[in-house]
Amino acid sequence: MTVMVKRPLVSVVDDDESVRESLPDLLRQLGYSVRAFSSAEEFLASDCVRETRCLILDIAMPGMTGPALQQELRIRGQEIPIVFITAQADETVRPRSLEQGAVECLLKPFSDTALLEALNAAFRRAARSNARDI
Amino acid sequence: MKSPTVALCSSDRHFGLLPPRRREPSKSAAAEDRAATSVGLGIAEINATVGGLIRQGRPLPVVLTALCQLFEATVKGFSSSVLLLDRIGTRVGNAAGSSLPDSYMKQLEGRRVSWIETPSGATISAKTPVIVLDPVLDALREGQEAAPTAAPGLRLHELSPILSLTGEPLGIFAVYQRESNPDVTRCPSALILQFTQVASAAIERMRSDEALKRSAVLLERTQQLSSTCCFSWRVETDEIVGGSKELCQLFELDPADVPVTLELIGSRIHFEDLPSFNEMIERARGGVSDFEFEHRLRLPDNSVKYLRVVGHRTRDQEGQLEYIGAVQDVTHRRHTEEALAKLRAELAQAARVTSLGVLTAAIAHEVSQPLAGIVTNASTCRRMLAVDPPDVEGARETARRTIRDAERASEVIKRLRALFCRKGTSSESLDLNEVTQEVLTLSLSELERNKVIVRIELARELPRVQGDRVQLQQVILNLLLNASDAMSGVDDRPRQLVIRTEQDEQDRVRLSVRDTGVGFEPQAVDRLFDAFYTTKSSGMGIGLSVSRSIIESHKGRLWATPNDGPGATFSFSIPCGPQDVTAGVPDARSLSAIRTSAVTNAEKGHLRGL
């Protein structure tokens, strides 16, 4: 019997269906376990919030936006490292979201290496924060 | 003519009305009256003297006084005065002549003559001479009003109405008997008539001279005021007649150069406008009934003047072809128009840039989504093929998705092309619903991002309109973005936007955008469409002013109304265009069809040629 190494869970929240379709496949290829949600509300209502090690979050969504979800998680005490993704071509988006505590903000379209780097950074941060907790 | 001594004496009338007299006395009457004339001055002599004074330009009172003096010199024992009526014909005016003392004449000014019961009133209303039978009673009757009877040492004898050629009363020729000379009891009526006629001619002549002078002054003043100059052009001699002073001023010619000729004026025409000027002249020589054109002058100091010329064909007294017309200096207006056009263009450009900025963001968003899918899928695909053994099935699926996303991106580009890459500003037959849909396709995501709930109510059957697709789309986009902006601060109610198209009662197509935003103050409604008026912190305030000018260029109207509830509704309506689609300018989709038909027609022509 082999010991299953539990893969870290990455959750994707984006209202765009093609992203929900393509990104999880890539993330699985990169070795993560993945869940995809079409809205912030759906994610909050799921049982994945506690388990999620990294959140890949679209900024502009109908209903609760990405930054609003970030705020909500902070209030709930769920400090999940967040990688924002956005199709907004506004150059102020990235610095603004980094300032607000995001690990990274990727402008669509982004490469797989950029995604991998962002995820690595997210897990490094999670590890640091866990170390502090201990 | 009957004897003038027809005496009427009733209980209430102490003066007599004489039968109306013809203007020319009969020879027999004149001969009869001449017998009583003590000093014989011929009527020709009187006419010559009075005419001479008029020609010398002497004032009317002087002329009339001379006439009265001539009368006195002609008829022994009698004096006379001329009482002029005011324009309405009811009062004695101020210009009068008399051989009587000035003080007497002065007191007559402004007296009423309309009272039929008085001799003066009777002579005016009956337009016939009046013989005064009892001056004392008549004086009482005239009371404080008219008092031609009140001259000291004079007794009013006869009043004769001075009539114009058209029979309008101009005044009264009053004849007085000198009390110092009681022997002569009768003044020849024919003589009085002659003097009355000379007075009439003198007054009419003076009045028409005066009117002429006034109209000349009026013409000069109005020409100055409107920078206009009237002219007449004798085609035969090319002589330009008119206010030569004004012509010289307008064309900046040396006043010594009169007469002004067409050649002289031609030398001032801007060389670029010379061909069209000459062409116009040739057309006029050909006898067109009216012409109108604008051209420029190049003046000696190299400055440029814009003139507008209108002319109308007529014939002069000798029957020669002549144009009368006016030249107006429109330089100032042209400069203003040019400045205005430039400003408009700048505004439109600025508006284009602002709305383009917003659009660019929307476009980038629309294209980035599928691009993200493509890159992600392709990356996944590569990784699936790199593992051992390669996940061919997974790779195939991701490749399929890559293609699908690429198609989605190219679909966005296609829509953009439909929106912008049509031919320049041109008018075509349009379906406003279709135009609106294209704008909505691109702006919906932007509106949704701003949490705007969009309700689309497009009329099922909408007549086509004639217009510029891109311009109308700019207006619609502007209205949508304005509505969205107006609701950006609204959190206590839904941010609802209703876009509706419909046909109104006046055969116009109307589009309205209703929001639940901050609305506007009723007093601001006039300023909403002014350039640079804005309620937004980030707006330039030109969108609506440019939108309105676009709609007005479509012969339409753009207006705003506050809602009953929160927010405002902005609407525009434009007239329905020709409903036959083929009658309009073809749009891109029907272009190939048109090309085909053009080829077919060319072939037909070719066949006919054979």
Can you tell me about this structure?
The complex is a heterodimer of chains A (134) and B (610). Chain A has helices at residues 17-29, 40-45, 66-75, 93-99, 112-133; strands spanning 9-13, 33-37, 52-58, 82-86, 104-107. Chain A has 134 residues and is an alpha/beta fold. The N and C termini of chain A lie far apart (32 Å). Chain B is built from 16 helices and 19 strands. Chain B has helices at residues 27-34, 43-55, 60-74, 102-108, 119-126, 135-142, 189-225, 244-251, 262-266, 274-285, 331-386, 392-420, 432-449, 469-486, 543-553, 591-609, and strands at 15-17, 78-84, 97-98, 130-132, 154-163, 169-178, 228-234, 239-242, 260-261, 290-298, 304-315, 321-329, 428-430, 453-457, 465-467, 496-503, 508-514, 557-562, 568-575. In chain B, the strands form four sheets. A six-stranded antiparallel sheet of chain B has the order 1-4-5-6-2-3, with helices on both faces. In chain B, strands 9-8-7-12-11-10 form a six-stranded antiparallel sheet, sandwiched between helices. Chain B has a five-stranded mixed sheet with strand order 14-16-17-19-18. In chain B, a hairpin with a 5-residue loop joins β11 (304-315) and β12 (321-329). The longest helix of chain B is centred in the middle third of the chain and has 56 residues, at 331-386. Chain B starts with 14 loop residues before the first strand and ends with a helix. Mean pLDDT of chain B is 76; it is low at 1-14, 21-39, 144-149, 537-541 and 580-610. The chains are: A alpha/beta (134), B alpha+beta (610).
